[in-house]
Amino acid sequence: MDQELSTIVTWILLLSNALVLGQEFTPRSYCTPEDSCWPTTDDFDELQSLNPSMEVITRGDGGWAEASNLVLNRRISETPGAVVYVRNSSHVQAVVKFSQDYNLNLKIISSGHEFIGRNIAPGCLLLSVAYMDEISTDLSCPEHSSGCMTVEPGVWWLQAYKAADKVNRIVMGGAEPSVSVTGWMLGGGHSPVSPKLGLGVDQVLMLQMVLADLSLVTLTKDGTYKQHINGTVRVEALIILLI
Questions:
Q1: CB under 8 A, 24+ apart: contacts of 59-66
Q2: What is the Cα–Cα distance from 215 to 228, expressed in whole angstroms?
Q3: pLDDT class for 137, splitting at 50, 70, 90?
Q4: Roughly how many angstroms between the first and final C-alpha of the chain, as a whole number?
Q5: Which residue has the higher pLDDT, 229 or 35?
Q6: Smallest Cα–Cα separation from 103: which of 31, 175, 35, 32?
Q7: Which of 48, 126, 160, 234 could form a disulfide with 83 if both were Cys (CB 3.0 to 4.6 A apart)?
Q8: What is the pairing mode between strands 125-128 and 82-85?
Q9: Are 77 and 68 spatial neighbours (Cβ–Cβ below 8 Å)?
Q10: Vertex 21, ends 17 and 27: CA angle to 5°?
Q11: pLDDT tens, residue by residue, 3-21
Q12: CA distance 14 to 20
């Protein structure tokens, strides 16, 4: 016990020293709609024209009232500067690059559930993956003998539960059916059956994602990493275990 207590005290002292000696954090300054550096209407139109199935909505556009109110939390009142609905990984890469080119604060939203508003910021460029909602099941997938489910980041748990039920399987998920699968797992994934089956992140078999350098990569549970060139592999968000 004394050794454990000594270790804890040591870590507390190290943390305290880091806080005292560390430099003061200065938030990065981003371009907002009130600044001259904010993209023009022509800039947003070009983003849209290069990605026809993408939907770009800016202030004053039809549908702005709905698009700017996607966060399902009445405590959060921040309004984005523009909203982009993406449908595939190429769209995600284009929006990430656009935000970097114009120094925009990029935020990502799925179902909209968020307790402290990390998916929104005043004047941000809001990337919505709500339209990426394809889902499939495979009982003979190579990732696991019990079968697996592939979901895009806009899939809700209600959709996942129904898809699993159709193949006589269950999938470990959250209690709220309108929460997105990926957002829930990014928070660890607490479930009513977690005491028996673990956290949601324990069920992830494979994850495909777009990185900040615009590369599309695949990460697997066994630690393998693969980069896909020129977006030739379609992003599927993640593959999770069926039980």
A1: 59/33
A2: 7
A3: very high
A4: 40
A5: 35
A6: 31
A7: 126
A8: parallel
A9: no
A10: 120
A11: 554 444 434 444 444 444 4
A12: 10
